[in-house]
Design goal:
single chain; 328 residues; alpha/beta; eight-stranded parallel β-sheet; two-stranded parallel ribbon; 14 strands; binds NADP nicotinamide-adenine-dinucleotide phosphate
Length: 328
């Protein structure tokens, strides 16, 4: 079978790394565009066997350079997204709307077979969030420029490489109390990264076109329940403290000064809305890819590093039975 050529933007992130492994194992050749080849090539290169991967450094708005890449690819996948705005062009509008619209235009011009774009769940409701509005605007512009595009809207995506469970585990481990926004009632349908990339592979290989697909995990859990589950998995007890909204806003204003804010005011607005299937679009289950991986089962595989004793807290070290094998 002739390998298909996939052009991936944002391949060095959580979803990108997992997707590169999946696609190249299935005989797709990938070209991955990164902003910084010196920093990211090791991360990207090690996801695939030699011959299956090419890495290109580019400014994503350098249309002349990007255009060249479209000439030799069949499929384009856009995984670039930001959670907060930074200075100098790193705005929600540029990253979530202008750039995907450019990709869709080039997909049309170069007659690509498919364009897969990662958006986000719940953006129709979150009308007061700049993040959500920019993602929605991006979707509209893509579908105008390339109606064959398939847009995936994931809920929270988790894995050992995420910035969600791993950050929460670090904070829960270190802080005596943890803030609960909106009393921790917001609902999520977290999807494991591998279930999401299985869906992307399925969409490409089964040529599923012109759809918005909501990608969700097998269970719906609240924000409070998510934190409680993480605490149980690392055997820790912490106070989960409901934060009144004015205090939450004030603390978010302060966090925004940090280079990597823990939460921003825009994220706080987003957190007000449930992040679960809307019922208005097909889900990954509807297109034949129900999620198989449960939150606790997967997080259990990597959370032990936040438990007292680290790897020694796991069953494989079984300290009680094998005391003589451990050098103290
Ligand atoms: N993770 C989730 O829970 C989640 C939930 C819903 C939707 N999504 C969406 O899914 C997509 C992929 O998510 P992810 O978690 O894999 O993303 P990620 O790890 O945060 O980032 C993906 C890649 O995007 C590139 N990138 C980031 N900021 C950029 C900028 N300002 N300009 C140019 N490139 C930039 C980076 O690649 P280089 O550094 O190599 O250039 C980065 O590795 C995003 O669109 C995200 O909004 C994610």
């Amino acid at each position: 079978m002739k390998a298909k050529n996939c052009l991936i933007f944002g391949g060095s992130g959580q979803i990108g790394k997992n997707l590169i492994r999946k696609l190249t194992k299935n005989n797709y050749k990938v070209t991955v565009v990164t902003r910084n080849i010196h920093q990211k090539s090791y991360i990207i290169k090690t996801q695939a066997n030699a011959g299956y991967i090419e890495i290109v450094e580019a400014n994503i708005f350098d249309e002349k350079k990007i255009r060249e890449l479209f000439k030799k690819n069949d499929i384009c996948i856009n995984l670039i997204g930001i959670l907060y705005e930074k200075k100098k062009g790193n705005t929600f509008k540029n990253i979530h709307s202008v750039f995907p619209s450019l990709l869709a235009k080039l997909c049309k011009e170069y007659n690509l077979k498919h364009f897969i774009h990662l958006s986000a769940l719940g953006i129709n409701n979150a009308i007061d969030s700049d993040y959500a509005r920019s993602k929605l605007e991006g979707e509209d512009r893509i579908l105008k420029n390339f109606p064959l595009a398939t847009i995936l809207r994931p809920s929270l995506v988790f894995s050992q490489d995420d910035q969600l469970t791993t950050n929460f585990l670090t904070l829960l481990n270190r802080l005596p109390l943890f803030p609960l926004y909106y009393d921790g009632r917001t609902k999520f349908a977290p999807i494991h990264c591998s279930d999401l990339t299985d869906t992307i592979h399925h969409v490409i290989s089964n040529q599923i076109y012109s759809k918005i697909i909501e990608c969700v995990g097998p269970e719906i859990i609240t924000f409070k329940e998510l934190l409680q589950r993480l605490l149980k998995l690392i055997n820790k007890k912490r106070i989960l403290l409901p934060f009144p909204l004015p205090i939450a806003k004030l603390s978010a204003t302060f966090f925004e000064i940090l280079p990597k804010p823990i939460i921003t005011r825009d994220q706080l607005r987003l957190l007000k809305y449930d992040n679960i299937p809307s019922g208005n679009y097909k889900t990954n289950s509807d297109v034949g890819m129900p999620s198989k991986r449960f939150f606790n089962d997967e997080v259990k595989k990597y959370c032990y590093m936040w438990r007292d004793g680290g790897q020694f807290s796991t069953e494989k070290y079984n300290l009680n039975n094998d005391k003589e094998n451990i050098i103290s």
